[in-house]
């Protein structure tokens, strides 16, 4: 289909801490870190999470979607390797599968 988009990594940044998917030692010791919008013991310094952003023509950056815990299974299922399964993630994008940019 010729789709091209840039994948970005949060490695080496504070992004995962800012979006509550990674936890510092003091967060883990407290047993009340915020994960999936709840104060909980995440059980690990890094947890799963998916975020979607939109950058407009003027360079404005907008956070449009996040999913944590088991919610991302529906976004990137194990079966995504099969034909057509990757289209689920496009449904989360502001532009979506039809490619039309919504008015702002």
Report on the architecture of this protein:
It is a single chain. The protein is of the alpha+beta class and 104 residues long. It has one domain (15-90). 13% of the residues lie in helices and 20% in strands. It has three helices and four strands; from the N terminus they run ααββββα. It has helices spanning 15-18, 25-30, 87-90, and strands at 33-35, 38-40, 49-55, 61-68. A two-stranded antiparallel ribbon has the order 1-2. A two-stranded antiparallel ribbon has the order 3-4. The radius of gyration is 16 Å and the shape is elongated. The mean pLDDT is 77.
Rg (CA only): 16 Å
Percent of residues in helices: 10-25%
How widely separated are the two ends? 27 Å
How many domains? The number is: 1
Based on helices, strands and strand pairing, what is the structural class?
A: alpha+beta
Task: Record the strand order, biggest sheet.
Answer: 1-2
How many DSSP helices?
3
Put the structure in a nutshell.
With 104 residues, the chain is of the alpha+beta class. The chain has helices at residues 15-18, 25-30, 87-90, and strands spanning 33-35, 38-40, 49-55, 61-68.
Please give a handful of descriptors for the protein shown.
104 residues, alpha+beta, 3 helices
Give the arrangement of secondary structure elements.
Blueprint lengths: L14 H4 L6 H6 L2 E3 L2 E3 L8 E7 L5 E8 L18 H4 L14
Antiparallel strand pairs: 1-2, 3-4
């Amino acid at each position: 289909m010729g789709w091209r988009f840039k994948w970005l990594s949060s490695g080496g940044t504070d992004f995962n801490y800012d979006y509550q998917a990674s936890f510092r030692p003091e967060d883990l010791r407290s047993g009340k870190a915020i994960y999936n919008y709840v104060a909980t013991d995440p059980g690990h310094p890094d947890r799963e999470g998916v975020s979607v952003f939109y950058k407009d023509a003027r360079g404005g950056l907008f956070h449009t979607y996040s999913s944590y815990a088991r919610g991302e299974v529906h976004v990137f299922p194990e079966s995504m390797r099969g034909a057509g399964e990757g289209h689920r993630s496009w449904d989360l994008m502001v532009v979506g599968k039809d490619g039309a940019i919504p008015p702002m």
